[in-house]
Specification:
The protein is mostly helical. The chain is built from 12 helices and 3 strands; from the N terminus they run ααβββαααααααααα.
């Protein structure tokens, strides 16, 4: 017997608003002299179109088949991530990309999606004592271990996903607090010394970017100048002088919020933050509406991923948080990240649609 829930279009409507904000910004910044030959807007539209394929497949497959496919996708993602150590392409100092001629992508984006899905499957029985941590850790540690040396920001996202799922799993709060204390001890003593020099600098320069204004601090300084120059109402479409004249680095990707804020101003920036907040609120509501823990864990993982990326990207653009190269979901340019985020949200929507379906 199957119980079918009424379709809820609030999630796709919020996603569409954020996509429009991103496409508007990328359309504007792609006309900058340094970027006008890269067809950024057309490629971003292609990313939207490509995402319809996995979303359509998941819509057809339904909740149970999606979960059944989780282990295969996870181990495939791990294999792809491991292969970057052999065939990885160097992009901005990181060899965590795969180039197959007609397509260049980050396996990390597939790994995020697969990790959420597989952890939810493995942890569906709920917390049942300390021994129940073994299986989740056996899945989480290999993925984050493969990522952390080349992409510390990506490892952070995976870690937040894991913590969010643990919280929804009803793990004891003191366990989570102890884990955070362990991270606070291990990171500066074990992880930080093994990071590349430029990675170390990016993690600390936000504290005083003017200490190295022509070097590591340059990016953050120019980003904050662009945000401030937007004023209350913004300079208008294609009128961003800082982002269009080459002062803001990566104005379509890492610092897309600075480009958006310069042209749309304080009003547009607040509106963007409100839409992101509504998206996160809706994901939280979907989690509370789901009767099964397995589905709740998926929504928690998606909420952790999207929420952390939004906070970190915008915080870095405002020189309030370390610069880790994390993209702004649905707004930053990037085919693999866009397809991954849209697929992840599409998965959540399908699971929510089938939340009352009996197995």
């Amino acid at each position: 017997m199957r119980s079918v829930s009424k379709l809820d279009f609030s999630l796709p409507m919020l996603v569409a608003l954020l996509l429009c904000a991103g496409l508007l910004t990328i359309s504007s910044i792609s006309s900058a002299p340094a970027l006008d030959h890269q067809n950024l807007f057309q490629k971003q539209l292609l990313g939207v179109a490509l995402s319809l394929v996995p979303i359509g497949l998941m819509w057809w497959a339904g909740r149970d088949r999606i979960f059944a496919f989780a282990p295969f996708l996870y181990f495939f993602a791990l294999l792809l991530q491991a292969s970057t150590f052999v065939i990885g392409k160097d992009v901005n100092g990181q060899t965590n990309w795969i180039d197959i001629g007609f397509l260049q992508f980050q396996p990390l984006e597939i790994l995020k999606f697969a990790t959420i899905l597989f952890l939810a499957s493995v942890m569906r029985g709920g917390y049942q004592g300390f021994a129940s941590y073994l299986a989740p850790l056996a899945l989480f540690l290999p993925g984050v271990g493969l990522v952390v040396t080349e992409d510390f920001g990506g490892a952070l996202v995976l870690s937040v996903i894991f913590l969010a799922i643990l919280f929804a799993w009803r793990a004891p709060i003191w366990h989570l607090a102890l884990a955070l204390v362990a991270v606070a001890v291990v990171f500066p003593t074990v992880v930080y010394p093994h990071l590349k020099p430029y990675q170390q600098a990016r993690l600390t320069i936000f504290l005083d970017p003017y200490k190295d204004p022509r070097g590591q601090g340059y990016q953050v300084i120019q980003s904050t100048i662009a945000v401030g120059s937007g004023g209350f109402e913004g300079k208008g479409y294609k009128q961003g002088t800082q982002s269009h004249n080459g002062f803001v680095p990566e104005p379509h990707n890492d610092f897309v919020f600075a480009s958006f804020a310069e042209e749309q101003g304080f009003v547009g920036s607040v509106a963007l933050l409100v839409v992101f907040a509504l998206l996160l609120w809706r994901l939280a509501g979907m989690a509370t509406d789901a009767p099964r823990l397995q589905d709740q864990l998926v929504f928690a993982g998606v909420l952790g991923q999207i929420g952390f990326q939004v906070i970190e990207n915008i915080g870095a653009a405002l020189s309030m948080l370390p610069l880790t190269g994390i993209t702004l979901p649905l707004v930053s340019y990037g085919l693999s990240s866009l397809v991954s985020v849209l697929s992840t949200l599409g998965m959540a929507w399908v699971i929510y649609r089938d939340r009352f379906q009996e197995i």
